[in-house]
Amino acid sequence: MLELLEKTAKHNGLVTAFALVGLVMLVSMFLSKKLTFGRVHGSAIAILIGLALAYWGGIQTGGKQGLADVSLFAGIGLMGGAMLRDFAIVATAFEVQVVEARKAGLVGVFALLLGTLLPFVVGASVAWAFGYRDAVSITTIGAGAVTYIVGPVTGAAIGASSEVMALSIATGLVKAIIVMVGTPMAARFLRLKTPRSAMVFGGLAGTVSGVSAGLAATDRRLVPYGALVATFHTGLGCLLGPSLLFFATRALVA
Amino acid sequence: MIIYGTALLAVCHLLGIFLGDLLGTLLGAKTNVGGVGIAMILLICARLYMHKRGLMPQTTEMGVSFWGAMYIPVVVAMAAQQNVVSALRGGPVALIAAFASVLACAACIALINRSERPAPETEADPDAHAAARHA
After folding, report:
1. Can you tell me the distance from the alpha carbon of B24 to that of B18, in angstroms, rounded to the nearest whole number?
2. Which candidate in B14, B66, B85 is best for mutational testing of the A interface (most A CBs within 10 A)?
3. Mind listing the pLDDT tens digit for each residue in B98-135?
4. Shortest CB distance from A239 goes to which of B27, B75, B79?
5. Considering the entire predicted model, what is its pTM?
6. Which end of chain B has fewer CB atoms surrounding its CB within 10 Å, N or C?
7. Which helix (H) or strand (E) covers residue B92, if one does?
């Protein structure tokens, strides 16, 4: 009986994922209402539960994909994978007010540039403070502070060691998680209210996953504006990381 | 038909990702440059164009808005497959670098959103009214 149920879930991975995420949303909406009286958004709690499940999955299987490595919940990998994530992000563009988006265009670009440069400088400085002295390692860790995709792409391009690459990915992941969890809490301090402020946020905070999850948990209507800018973030980082930023670092270190 | 909306979304998605890859290759960035952003812009343009010609009935719109509404559940699923264990095992360098860069960025966001806020808002009101009147 139990085996039969397990087989059903395994053979219908994506459908199982829909049911599971629905359940997580239900629980978090309930917790949000009863425990925090609506002060912490239900989506924020749901994302936290998601991260906790990912931790549990990682401990259970020793894999890299959190809960998706548990064979019963493999469908989570498809549902939360890049394909459906991007599909859903693009769909949110349907609600974009063109006038608003165009008004913030220039500030968005400025935020994007600053959002690549600033984390890189901070990440590289921390790497220096912890005793890394070669330009390749410093650049790779600095790039990881931009996003967890920019880190390994840059590291691979300039020939970093796998240990430094892992560190760089970890930096980016921790950053994405802080942005996901911290945004709803810091929303007032960040003045995240208008489409324009969401675009500034998208450019500076970086990582599509962090920005989109953080905004989703703050105010769903702001998601498309933040995502519109953030989506260029990884591309810009991968462009500048192995080239301009690496050369600048090498010039400074040597 | 509802599938028209979903198909429109799919075509915009594919075209955007393709153009992003193309841009990345041209720039030598080894990755997709703004593919999702390009797809979003394509979808916005398609919506404006089709709305004007009355080619966008409610059912077609529903084919897109369903996926827009599925966004948060998808993000929860995405959170559930992050490599949280290795992120936490990265040790002090990863934690401090990430934390410091988030703090620096947060300060910048707060600064930009604060300092430039009064100006656009006084401008924004007549703009919004004008847009509303046009529509």
Report:
1. 10
2. B85
3. 888 888 888 888 888 887 555 444 444 444 444 444 44
4. B27
5. 0.71
6. C
7. helix B91-115
